[in-house]
TrEMBL record:
Native organism taxonomy: Eukaryota, Metazoa, Chordata, Craniata, Vertebrata
Organism: Ameca splendens
Membrane topology (UniProt): Multi-pass membrane protein
Coiled coil: none
Protein name as catalogued: cardiolipin synthase (CMP-forming)
Domain of life: Eukaryota
Pfam families attached to this UniProt entry: CDP-OH_P_transf (PF01066)
Catalytic activity: a CDP-1,2-diacyl-sn-glycerol + a 1,2-diacyl-sn-glycero-3-phospho-(1'-sn-glycerol) = a cardiolipin + CMP + H(+)
PANTHER family: CARDIOLIPIN SYNTHASE (CMP-FORMING), CDP-DIACYLGLYCEROL--GLYCEROL-3-PHOSPHATE 3-PHOSPHATIDYLTRANSFERASE-RELATED
Keywords, ordered alphabetically: Lipid biosynthesis, Lipid metabolism, Membrane, Phospholipid biosynthesis, Phospholipid metabolism, Transferase, Transmembrane, Transmembrane helix
EC number(s) reported in the record: 2.7.8.41
InterPro entries per the UniProt record, alphabetical: CDP-alcohol_PTase-I, CDP-OH_P_trans, CDP-OH_PTrfase_TM_dom, Phosphatidylglycerol_P_synth
Length: 172
């Protein structure tokens, strides 16, 4: 049983809440503000990890699942929005979305298997119950970094007028 009210967890929740607004801005073609808020979301991602590693009282099992979930939600919303804005091809977005759905399903399965019995909905969704600590692999971290780099490049393309760049198309 642990306290879910940590600074890193609150930063993750802020990132999750920012995702739909970022998606809206992209669909409305406000790329300057979208790029700035995406940079802010990236800063909160770095900050929550730094805080959790620096202060042991700020580390939590919930955070180990919430942080990658926030990343997946943000990436999914951004890919769909950038596809709508015709800045990322639809097949690439479909690939990213289906992979992330699989990863999120795996997190829910691990949660189900590690909640103390008897498993009830209230226990399953109670963030105070400690379950398995999730640790991303190096491959997963590199994959997320590449996905975020593509999002940043795609958001920057209309701002800096390189939407037809061969380099951007190579990132796809």
């Amino acid at each position: 049983y642990e306290n879910p009210w940590t600074v890193p967890n609150l930063l993750c929740v802020c990132r999750i809440l920012l995702a739909p607004y970022l998606g809206y801005l992209i669909t409305q073609q406000h790329f300057d503000l979208s790029l700035a808020l995406f940079a802010l979301a990236g800063a909160t991602d770095l900050l929550d990890g730094l805080i959790a590693r620096t202060w042991p009282t700020q580390k939590s099992a919930l955070g180990s699942a919430l942080d990658p979930l926030a990343d997946k939600i943000l990436i999914s919303v951004l890919y769909v929005s950038l596809t709508y804005a015709e800045l990322i091809p639809a097949p690439l977005t479909a690939l990213v979305i289906f992979r992330d759905i699989g990863l999120i399903a795996a997190v829910f399965w691990v949660r189900y298997k590690t909640v103390p019995p008897p498993v009830t909905l209230s226990k399953f969704f109670n963030p105070c119950y400690t379950t398995a600590q999730l640790k991303p692999t190096l491959f997963s971290k590199v994959n997320t970094a590449i996905q975020l780099f593509l999002v940043a490049a795609s958001l920057a393309a209309p701002v800096f007028q390189f939407t037809d760049s061969v380099l951007l198309q190579c990132l796809w």
